[in-house]
Amino acid sequence: MASRRRMLLKVIILGDSGVGKTSLMNQYVNRKFSNQYKATIGADFLTKEIQFEDRLFTLQIWDTAGQERFQSLGVAFYRGADCCVLVYDVNVMKSFDNLNNWREEFLIQAGPSDPENFPFVVLGNKIDVDGGNSRVVRWPAYLLMLFGF
Questions:
Q1: What is the CATH number of domain 6-146?
Q2: Where are the domains of the chain?
Q3: Model confidence pLDDT, tens digit, residues 119-137
C-alpha cells in the first residue's frame, strides 16, 4: 500500500532564452506542445504528482526566464531547490557553452548546503529540429569536457 505522506520536491529549470524550458515543462506536466514561442517573464511553476515505489511525490517545477535581465530574481526562486535541470539547444553551441555559467550562478544564489553533491540534470533539447541536420552539440564529448571529466 502506498504511503499517504507526500514529499514536495522543488525542481528548477535553467538555460538560455529559447532553448525550450517552458515547452519541456508543459510537455512533461500537461502532455501539450505548442510551436508558438512566448518568452517567460521572471518565473512560473507547475506541479506534477508522481509515485515512485511506495511514495508519492509532488514535483514543483520552476520554469525561469533565460534572459540576463531576470537573473537577479534567482535568489528568491532558487532557494530550497532539490534539483536543477540545465537545458541547452543541441543546435546552438552557445547555449551549451553557457551551461556552466548557469550552474555556477545557481550554486551562488541557491546556496545549497552541499554544493559539491547537489543534483544537476543536463538536457539537450530540440533534437527533432531540421531532422537533426543542424545539430552542433554531440553527446557525450562536449558534456564531459564541460564538467571536467
A1: 3.40.50.300
A2: 6-146
A3: 999 999 998 888 878 888 8
